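Thread title: Can someone regenerate the structure for this chain?

I was given the following input by a collaborator and told the matching structure tokens would be attached. They weren't. Posting the sequence so someone can regenerate them.
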Amino acid sequence: MEKRQVKIPNFFVALIPVIVMMGLMLYGLVGKKDYHDAHMPLIIAIVVACIVGYLHGHSFSDMLAGMLERLNATMEAILILCTVGLLVSSFMISGTIPTLIYYGLDILTPKLFLPVGCVLCAIVGLACGSSWTTTATVGIAFLAIGQGLGISPAITAGMIISGAYVGDKFSPLSDTTNLAAAVSETGLFDHVIAMTSTTGPTFLIAMVIYTIIGINVDPSSYDASIAAEMRNTIAKTFNTNPLVMLPILVVIVACVMKLPGLVGIAVSVFTGVVFAVIFQKGLGLTDIFNMLHYGPSFETGNQYLDGILKKGGMDHQMWTINLILLAVAYGGALERCGCVEALFGKLKNKLHNVGSLVLATLLTSLFCDAAMGDQFLGIGVPAPLYVDKYDEMGLGRNMMSRTLEDAGTLWAVMFPWTGCGAYQYATLGIHPFTYFPFAFVNLVNPIYAAITAFTGRNIFWADGSYTNLLGRTKAGKPAGCPEEAHKIAVANLERLRAEGKAPQINA
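Best answer:
Regenerated them for you:
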């Protein structure tokens, strides 16, 4: 049999699978139809991508291999997702999350809740290196506290997402943080330092906005009796001894000890179960198994509380897991059939300054998030497309790694059909399009990164120098980079400075 010639589709053909997927999604979401999930649109889009691949020389087995390659890379995340369902259930039945709610309602006020909650979520995210774990533990608790304080669930969810993702981005334990550094071939801490130039200011901006919202909370919206009733119901249903909050500490310690994700969560689940047996009486092995598998089923009689406590369980995660499997398979199909190369391969030839390069990287990451349904693709796909351009413009590799995270990580959670968006929707019970306007860190960060790049600010150069917000360029230590690529980038930077196209180092 004659071997078929593989071709790259043209730009318009490459758009077809994307248009099909997005069109079907909008048909359900915007058209107010009865079907709002992303599963069937993704299945149809996968078929379309395979047809495009076949028409351009790929066999079905080749397309399948592309999908399986991506799926294999995400299997650990899938297993972690299963165990996170167990984690939430174990922290419910142990009384850990209910007790956090109990004391949180007593300590926090409507005016302080949003900024304080955002900081605490960031701290937990930093310690855990996981936005998923943060939202599944303290995030659920804060959502209940916010309801008790009369704060809109959409605003609370946006605050939780903002804090959790800030912590995740700055954590050396985070998978996306390590991935961005790895695909950019730079040092992990070089990458983290670079992120302070964009994520740091946007976090401060978000804190100011959350503080303003808190100050302007309508006192009439706060019904103290609701919070009091929730606290009384929790006290009647659970043992609220402060010791039952210790499993949260176990999660943090497991992360600090750099235990593998699955091991750390497994230890945390076991701790939660032990605490449930010790502190929450009347639970047999069958009860524990049922709650871990299907989720807790507490009937407290309090409508606000019942909705919060019915979270978790391995079975509850299957909707999300199915979606992630389809989204990743779709991304693998798009990549294998050449659609990504067709859409962005020629773009880099039109990039002639730092601002346009940063904007192109951000938009490509956003596209991969939205069209390919996976944050790892939002980071991993743009890197090889633009890396030579960063070297050509004399930029540090941590400039690229930072930019990949500014959009690829932070915006993946904004779409309900991505793995991140689906997970947070399933965990918090708030639709991504609902919390989208209030996740200020995630929303503002890419915009801030683009504006500062176009104005020649927050630029990390190949020789280690850094142009700050005031436009002054200070000498510094070069970020990690392959030796040959570093020589090329530094030579390009020196040439650009000689031509007056790059800033000189200020004394």
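The chain is about 70% helix and 0% strand.
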